[in-house]
Structures are given as C-alpha cells and as structure tokens.
Amino acid sequence: MEPQRENLQRTLPLSLERYHISEEYGFLLPNALKELPDHYRPWMEIASRLPHLIESHQLRAHVDKLPLLDCRFLEGYREQRLAHLVLGAITMGYVWQEGETQPRGVLPRTLAIPFVEVSRALGLPPILVHSDLVLTNWTKRNPKGNLETIISLPGGKSLRGFVLVTVLVEKAAAPGVKALVQGVEAIVQSSQDALLQALQQLRLSIQDITRTLGQMHDYVDPDIFYAAIRIFLSGWKDNPAMPTGLIYEGVSTEPLWYSGGSAAQSSVLHAFDEFLGIRHCKESADFLHRMRDYMPPSHKAFIEDIRSAPALRGRVLACGPGPCLTAYNQCLQALAELRRYHITVVARYLVTAAARARSRSQGDLLRPPKALEDRGTGGTPVLSFLKSVREATLDAIICPRA
Predict the structure, then answer these.
(1) What is the DSSP string of 101-115?
(2) What pTM was estimated for this model as a whole?
(3) Which of 95, 132, 219, 355 matches a 20 to 30 Å C-alpha distance to 305?
C-alpha cells in the first residue's frame, strides 16, 4: 500500500487534464472527429450507411469485400477514437444483422485485425463500448449547439435520442466530476469550507443528471429500443445467443468473449462512488470493476486515484455532526434518488417493453429478442444489479448520533 500512496502524493493535486477529462464536458471527447483520412474511405462508406445496410441485409456482403487496411496511417488520439467507433459499430451490425437467432460467429480478418490493432493502441476491448457510442459519437450540428450523432445504427430517431440524451447526461456530470477534484484538494488542505462547497456542487450535479435522464422518455420509444436497438449494443459474453463467443479471424483461432455496451461502462458513477466511499456487495463490485476494463485507461486511472486519495467518509466521520455531514448525506440521498429513477427507466424500456413484445407478433428487426430478456446489454441481471447498487448507496448514509 505504501508505494501506491507515495505515487498518489506525487500526482496531487489532481488535474482533470492529466486524465483526458474536460472541465466543460467531463468524460466526453471534445471536438470529436467526423471523418478519417482518405485511406480509410472503405470503412467510412460502410459506416455512413449502416442502418440501411443492416435493415436491407446487405452489410455482411459489403464487409466481406473490405480490403485489409493498415492502422498505421491513423494520426493521433482522436482519429484512433473515431476508428474504434466506426469499426465497433460495423462489428455490431455484422454480428447481429440477422438478429439473435443467426449471429455471425466469425469476424472476417479485414475487420478483426484492424479493430484489434486500434483497440490495443487505445487500451480498449475490440467491441463497441460506451466510450464509442456516447463519448466519441457526438458533434455540434450548428453554432447554436444542436447535437447530432456521428455514426448511427438501426433505430432511427430513437437511436439518435438514446445516444444524445446519454451525451447530455455525461455533460451534466461534468461539474460533479470537477467537484471531486476540488473535494480531494479540500481534504488535503483541511479546508472545511472548500469541502462543503465541493459537496454542494456534487449534489447539484447529481440532481441535474437525474433531470437530464428524464429526457429519455421524450426522445426514445421503449418498443423500438427493446426490439430494434438493444441487440446492436449486446456483446458475446454472458449472452445465451452467443455461448461460444466470437472468433476474430487473423487474431485468434480461439473465440473471445466481451460484454456489450452498458451504462456501467460510464466513469461517472464509478468516480462518485469512490469519492463518497460507497461499498457494493461482492457480485455488484466484481461486475463494476470488470466494466472499468471497458473504459479509456486514463478515465480508469482517474477513478482509481480518487479511490486512493484521502478518504472523504473518514474526514466527515471525524468532523461529526455539522454542515459537511449534512452535505455528504445529501449527496448520497441524491445519488440514491438517481439510482431509483434509473430503475424506473430500465423497467419501462426493458421489463414493460418485453411484456408488450411477447404479447404481439412483429416482423423483421422488431421481432422481440429473447436471449437477454432479463439482462442488460452488458450481460448482467439488470434490475437486481441496479437495486443492489441503490441499496449500497442508502447504506452509506451516516446517521448522526444523538
């Protein structure tokens, strides 16, 4: 433990810039690129037509004709992030084009080799992850700041709404992420006033996240999300539809298993939990820690450094009843309310939508998926997991002694 503590002392005070985190946009990638160099035009031509190619059952034929392109011509971090988004989205379409009953078990080498290469360069797994679909997949359509996605998948306006509302959730978290850094510095400097201000800012940010999440109901149709969108966010780990995993041709002769995109791959609540000292049950904690391997390494490092920083909870307990204890508990209450609301959203878009899908016959891409019926796209039993993390948040509230 001592070497880790000494290393942290060398990195204090924490700096968001060091972790590729923006003060204004949080974990979102600012100024994400929309185009790759001309060498990668074959990828971009497919990516720009993904919904049509998938829905017309032509994507696999187009991918099978791709040339093998060299990733060495990607210049810089933003090009690599866009390439990962493009290849990840094409991969999801290729695997799931015919639905969960006919997934493709081998990814062709012209897609698998460059996808694995750029994944290794970024420290990410070769599958579409939250940092692709959300953090990298947004741009300002005009000077007024109206947002648009860069790469799309089936689902039309609902897919666009799902991505962009989640982008807004990440942006709403930015002041809270900044407050974590200010809070750690306040603890180090033993400044109760600065700590109180940081806790108040964190609470406001959490409440703003909850309000922003509510926009999901305005822009995303539950039936379209459940039957048409969700499958293209699903992975091949803990997924009964792909029990043998996926072979990445030219990379490995053995199948590989990766979880699909999940809100648990967002760094926001991981960082909040570590700062507030919330401890989850072993099953939930194991899943959450596994999801950190699906984050950009710099974001994962930020979470781990927050965990290793001087403990907020210990400082609050040492101070006893007073403004900081009250503000600390208010953060936990706001976070528990966010998690309660998240449960209602998931129930509407998963449980209720699944029941409706079973009660009617639908065609083509709107056939109800069954393999992950009670699971999130990350492969976990989603409602029991969300209830578990909410209870852990409530359990962290400190009851002042009389």
Answers:
(1) TS---EE-HHHHHHH
(2) 0.92
(3) 132
Taking the CA atoms of residue 339, residue 234, residue 212 and residue 24 in that order, the dihedral angle to the nearest 10 degrees is 110
Q: Residues 215, 390, 22, CA angle at the centre, nearest 5°?
A: 55
Residue with tokens 């979880």: 259
Radius of gyration of the chain (CA): 22
Q: What is the DSSP letter of 322?
A: S
User: Reduced to 3 states, what is the DSSP secondary structure of residue 224?
Assistant: helix
In three-state secondary structure terms, 15 is coil
What are the pLDDT digits (tens) for 247-293? 999 999 999 999 999 999 999 999 999 999 999 999 999 999 999 99
297-308 and 2-11 helices cross at what angle (nearest 10)? Answer: 110
For 296-338, what is each residue's pLDDT tens digit? 999 999 999 999 999 999 999 998 899 999 999 999 999 999 9
Query: What is d(CA 174, CA 166) in angstroms, rounded to the nearest whole number?
Result: 13
Per DSSP, the three-state class of 129 is coil
Q: Position 167: which residue type? A: V
What are the phi and psi torsion angles at 179 (to 5°)?
-65, -30
Q: What does the alpha-carbon distance between residue 110 and residue 90 come to, in Å, rounded to a whole number? A: 12
Q: Are 159 and 229 in contact (CB under 8 A)?
A: yes
In the chain, the amino acid numbered 40 is Y
